[in-house]
Model the fold of this input.
Amino acid sequence: MSLMQRITTFLRSPKGQQLVERGRREMGKPANQQKLKGLAARLSNRRR
Done:
């Protein structure tokens, strides 16, 4: 089984669904969105 198949299988499992839902809840928080924007900005500046 390839890595992508294993990831897909996990994400479709109940445990995987719980993890996805938790990630969605966390990213709905403004503080976490701000942290992610800061990280993206730092990474984009590093590539230049």
About this structure: The longest helix spans residues 30-46. The mean pLDDT is 93.
